[in-house]
Amino acid sequence: MSKKTVWFEVGENETLADCLERMKEQGYMAMGRKEEPVFEDIDGEPVPVRQIVKFKGVKIDN
Fold first, then answer.
1. Which single residue of 8, 14, 27, 50 has CA 20 to 30 Å from 35?
2. Whether the Cβ atoms of residue 34 and residue 51 lie closer than 8 Å to each other
3. Integer angstrom CA distances of residue 4 from 29, 41, 62
4. What is the pLDDT averaged over residues 37-56?
């Protein structure tokens, strides 16, 4: 039995639930989550514009 890990990024127009369902359809289960802020330079100042959310998916192959 081996474990395969893949990171799934939540799409810009996708909900967290949509991403989790997509993972499930591909045979993966969420085993972790990370968020990364995205900044844009406006008038010389970094301004947060959105968050990138990624789920760590684990698939077990028999």
1. 27
2. no
3. 11, 37, 11
4. 94
